[in-house]
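Bumping my old thread because nobody answered last time. Still need a sequence for this structure:
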């Protein structure tokens, strides 16, 4: 090997070092020191690969896709054929046991209720994780993943790909530059659900397909008989497995709100919806969250702000000045920032932001530009040492608290029968104003039928439950044996 270095090579090496990137080959320092040369390929495993996980893995195919785990091998067959060299598993735990030492990173795209345990197990093994949105099914799970990421210093990314796009950056730049003034109210909506919601629990069980491991799909949730309505994909509308339209889409739509307004934990929350059933998310919902004032920025104050969410076809009223005929639904939803100087509107993923005044300000750029895909920017972060790592666009340090905001909306919907605004202590993850003796009931079945042309409801209700205990279970789920989360780190 020549001892001489060309001028071009010298400049390239110097530029990378100045950027804080790890450029020392892993063969010199070793991966145990947290170093992976950018030219080296990660060994990536996928868990939950039949749906969105497939799209994520295809965006990562420049790396080594070494293993695939999915509870439904019929749904995942096309993925297995696309990555023929990857070893196949039904149970991610067996995959971790057999290949844990050789895996560098894990992509999690299962049903919402298993995101946390799969990701947590990976992080405790020192693996980098990419987790589809919503990050978790509950507030406690979001807090846990946030702290595990900090403890184990792994590279993380939530799958809200709009976080890496130009629209979110533009929204933030305009807000930070004071272009719309102080924001005290935000309204956001989605046209989802596009899967079944508002359903009674199926009365009968269907035969379990030979290609599906139903017990593994259920995972930590309470066991129930299999019915073909639950999976694949339609699990989103069932409370035990999904988080409805809010959980599915708010991680895309509300991200520029959370980041642009520098939000933290809400202090108050309330919600209403169409008929709320025990097992299934309602057809349409409205949620209001209140966030306290934050530290002012140099060019704009950050006062108390309320964020109002609509789904199921509901939308906010059109702000004054919006042209007649203009559809505010852009790529599945929209956001309206009501500022004291102007009104800012963008679509889902922060797409195509614009000001109602018609201005197009040239504000200073404040956000890192992501030139890679959302997935490959995570790969970049995986290959950097923790000390020099440039964070991804949606790391768990941000995505965790943000996801708490999202699932807090789910909590408000499920607790709406208390008929009160709920006060939230975010630091301690608890409601502070639910009376000790308050009870709550939910509708097991709506009993809808038509008698002589007249629609009737013969609703079947649960027995009254202690509301505090019910809320605590929603905040932190009791897992079915033998599933167990790692302990909450003290970091």
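Sorry it took so long. Here it is:
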């Amino acid at each position: 090997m020549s001892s001489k270095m060309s001028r071009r090579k010298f400049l390239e090496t110097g530029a990378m070092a100045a950027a804080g990137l790890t450029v020392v080959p892993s063969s010199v320092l070793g991966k145990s020191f947290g170093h992976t040369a950018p030219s080296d390929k990660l060994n990536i495993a996928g868990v939950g690969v039949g749906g969105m996980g497939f799209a994520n893995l295809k965006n990562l195919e420049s790396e080594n896709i070494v293993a695939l785990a999915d509870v439904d091998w019929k749904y995942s067959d096309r993925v297995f054929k696309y990555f023929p060299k990857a070893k196949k598993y039904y149970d991610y735990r067996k995959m971790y046991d057999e290949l844990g030492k050789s895996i560098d990173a894990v992509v999690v795209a299962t049903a919402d209720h298993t995101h946390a345990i799969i990701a947590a197990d990976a992080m405790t093994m020192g693996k980098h994780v990419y987790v589809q949105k919503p990050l978790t099914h509950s507030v406690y799970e979001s807090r846990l993943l946030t702290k595990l990421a900090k403890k184990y210093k792994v590279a993380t990314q939530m799958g809200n790909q709009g976080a890496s796009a130009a629209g979110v950056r533009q929204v933030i730049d305009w807000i930070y530059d004071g272009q719309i003034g102080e924001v005290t109210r935000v309204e956001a909506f989605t046209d989802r659900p596009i899967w079944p919601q508002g359903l009674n629990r199926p009365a009968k069980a269907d035969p379990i397909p030979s290609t599906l491991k139903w017990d593994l799909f259920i995972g930590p949730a309470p066991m129930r008989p299999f019915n073909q309505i639950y999976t694949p994909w339609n699990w989103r509308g069932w409370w035990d497995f999904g988080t409805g339209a809010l959980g599915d889409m708010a991680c895309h739509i509300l991200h520029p709100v959370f980041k642009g307004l520098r939000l933290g934990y809400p202090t108050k929350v309330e919600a209403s919806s169409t008929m709320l059933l025990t097992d299934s998310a309602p057809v349409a919902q409205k949620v209001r969250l209140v966030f306290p004032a934050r530290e002012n920025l140099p060019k704009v104050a950050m006062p108390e702000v309320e964020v109002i969410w609509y789904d199921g076809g509901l939308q906010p009223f059109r702000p004054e000045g919006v042209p007649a005929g203009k559809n505010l639904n852009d790529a599945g939803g929209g956001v309206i920032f009501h500022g004291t100087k102007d009104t800012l509107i963008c679509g889902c993923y922060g797409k195509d932001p614009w000001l109602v005044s018609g201005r197009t300000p040239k504000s200073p750029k404040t956000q890192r530009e992501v030139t890679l895909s959302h997935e490959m920017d995570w790969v970049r972060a995986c290959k950097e040492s923790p000390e020099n790592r440039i964070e991804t666009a949606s790391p768990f340090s941000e995505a965790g608290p943000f996801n708490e905001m999202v699932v807090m909306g789910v909590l408000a919907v499920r607790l709406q029968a208390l008929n009160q605004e709920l006060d939230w202590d975010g630091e301690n993850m608890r409601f502070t104003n639910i009376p000790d003796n308050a009870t709550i009931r939910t509708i097991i079945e709506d009993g809808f039928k038509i008698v002589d042309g007249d629609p009737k409801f013969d609703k079947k209700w649960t027995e009254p439950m202690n509301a505090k205990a019910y809320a605590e279970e929603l905040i932190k789920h009791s897992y079915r044996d033998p599933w167990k989360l790692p302990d909450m780190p003290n970091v």
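The radius of gyration is 24 Å. Let me know if any region looks off to you.
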